[in-house]
Write a structure and sequence with these properties.
Binding site for Mn(2+): 306, 333, 349, 448
Number of helices: 15
Low-confidence stretches: none
EC number: 5.3.1.4
Shape: elongated
Domain L-arabinose isomerase central: 177-324
Number of strands: 19
Oligomer: single chain
Helix content: 25-40%
Strand order of the largest sheet: 11-12-17-16-15-18
Radius of gyration: 25 Å
Number of domains: 2
Structural class: alpha/beta
Catalytic activity: beta-L-arabinopyranose = L-ribulose
Mean pLDDT: 96
Distance between the termini: 47 Å
Domain L-arabinose isomerase C-terminal: 328-470
Length: 500
């Protein structure tokens, strides 16, 4: 079984009855072999499911309806082995609600020069069959990914996998529930937004719950459950020398274990995949959850600080998309800069950075938390793993949503930080901090991000297309003048696309 479990991508091949049964038998055989090859490939993360060749408007319409109804179908790959007149696809494409990818390939890589005849040409004519299909997709203004090349090539399969992962993320977005414990941080603009518009655009639901509800779940955790959780902590982390001997620190660790178990109990019972909290809303809790939030993120939950439900949802979606890949995904914040020979950004948060991005085994300790509620809180301390990464920020512009991505390179810190009591990651934005930060600010990017070393811009681009939202990328080629023009052009395009 592939990494997305029972979730599947359907493979639909287009043809027509014109060619007769012998050609159609070969079309079916070739399609089945392609699907088998994809499922045997370690590059493609989702199970690909063969569907019988469609040859008429009725068959096309029927398979698109079936895809819509199948809960395990997260998307569709379409390929025209022969010529498939595109008017046949209109009703089906109008009906299709799942994302689709257009694979422009052919079964054989090379031509049999000595034996090629018109029968071969008629059977293997995706070179113009896919162009006919491509026209109707464009005419109907259907967003889709087009992948071109022989199906056995590594780069083709990598593009297919990128899209499959985005389809898994889109499926998660359609079914995700975000729990908000408390409200947004007061007076902060970017963490606010239109939750109804977000549900219409992305599918996910955002539900507010009072701290009293969460406190009940936390207080229901037993001493035996807390004790077992402490034993687990001792095996998974490098524990500070005096943590289990110091009565005060041990009490703070007990608080965190109870918070983790209580929050998870609440999230599971409510079917939530992501959550937010805020240091200004902690009534009834022992403190702002630190270790508890870090561990819940490491289990796959999305998180956003200060009530940031958009970033919380994005973290969860990206965690789903990155299943089975090396590298982690975390809630993050650009906290402070290191200006020098190469300008750098130090990312962190008050407590909540996911250990999935750690370079080494995290250390568990207790330190003073001074914002919102002044108290000692247990947390994991570590430095982020070096390597390529992306920072992703979904924002609400009032009349539409925008997703901003900055490619960055995480690096090892030049010195130790013995007095910094939080997890952190140090990175160098592409093309450099000066251009990247200016572009980020022009685009309206938030101070919170979803940080990932498991995904690339291509994954987020595919997701943004499925969602029908603007994507703005800051990378090694970014130039401020062109970037500002792109933002202006995007504003015009998305404004016109929405209609009056």
């Amino acid at each position: 079984m592939k990494v997305f479990g029972p979730k599947q991508v359907w493979f639909i091949t287009g043809s027509q009855d014109l060619y007769g049964p012998k050609v159609l038998e070969e079309v079916a055989k070739d399609s089945q072999q392609i699907v088998a090859g994809f499922n045997q490939s370690s590059t493609i993360s989702a199970e690909i499911v063969y569907q019988p060749t469609v040859k008429s408007p009725k068959e096309i319409h029927a398979v698109c309806q079936l895809a819509n109804r199948d809960e395990n179908c997260i998307g569709v790959i379409m390929w025209m082995h022969t010529f498939s007149p595109a008017k046949m696809w209109i009703a089906g494409l109008n009906e299709l609600k799942k994302p689709f990818m257009h694979l422009h390939t052919q079964f054989n890589a090379g031509l049999p020069w000595a034996d090629i005849n018109m029968n071969y040409m008629n059977t293997h004519q995706s070179a113009h069959g896919d162009r006919e299909f491509g026209y109707i997709g464009t005419r109907m203004r259907k967003e889709r990914k087009v992948v071109v090349g022989h199906w056995q090539k590594q780069d083709v399969q990598l593009q297919i996998d990128d899209w499959c992962r985005a389809a898994a993320g889109w499926h998660e977005s359609q079914n995700l529930k975000v729990a908000r414990f408390g409200d947004n941080m007061r007076q902060v603009a970017v963490t606010e937004g239109d939750k109804v518009a977000a549900q219409i655009q992305f599918g996910y639901e955002v539900h507010a719950h009072g701290l009293g509800e969460l406190s009940e779940a936390v207080n229901s955790v037993t001493h035996a459950e807390v004790s077992a959780q402490l034993d687990l902590y001792a095996t998974e982390y490098a524990v500070a020398d005096d943590l289990f001997r110091d009565d005060h620190k041990l009490k703070m660790l007990n608080n965190e274990a109870r918070l983790e178990l209580g929050m998870e109990r609440f999230l599971v019972a409510g079917g939530f995949g992501a959550f937010t909290n805020c240091f200004e809303n902690l009534t009834g809790l022992s403190g702002l959850p630190g270790l508890a939030t870090q561990r819940l993120m490491s289990k796959g939950y999305g998180y956003g600080g200060e009530g940031d439900w958009k970033t919380s949802a994005m973290v969860r979606i990206m965690k789903v998309m990155s299943a089975g890949r090396e590298g982690g995904t975390s809630f993050m914040e650009d906290y402070t800069y290191n200006f020098g020979a190469t300008d750098q950004a130090l990312g962190a948060h008050m407590l909540e950075v996911c250990p999935s991005i750690a370079a080494a085994k995290p250390e568990l300790d207790v330190h003073l938390h001074t914002i919102g509620m002044r108290c000692d809180v247990a947390r994991l301390l570590f430095k982020g793993k070096p390597g390529a990464a992306i920072n992703v920020s979904p924002i609400d512009l009032g009349n539409r949503f925008r997703i901003i991505v900055n490619e960055v390179d995480a690096v090892n810190p030049p010195a130790e930080t013995p007095n910094l009591p939080v997890a952190s990651a140090l990175w160098e934005p592409r093309p450099n901090l000066s251009v990247a930060a200016a572009a980020w600010i022009h685009a309206g990017g938030a101070h919170h991000t979803a940080y990932s070393q498991a995904l690339t811009v291509d994954n987020i681009a595919d997701f943004a297309e499925m969602a029908g939202v603007e994507l703005t990328v800051i990378d090694a080629d970014t130039r401020i003048r062109q970037f500002k023009n792109e933002l202006r052009q995007n504003a015009a395009y998305y404004g016109l696309a929405q209609g009056l």
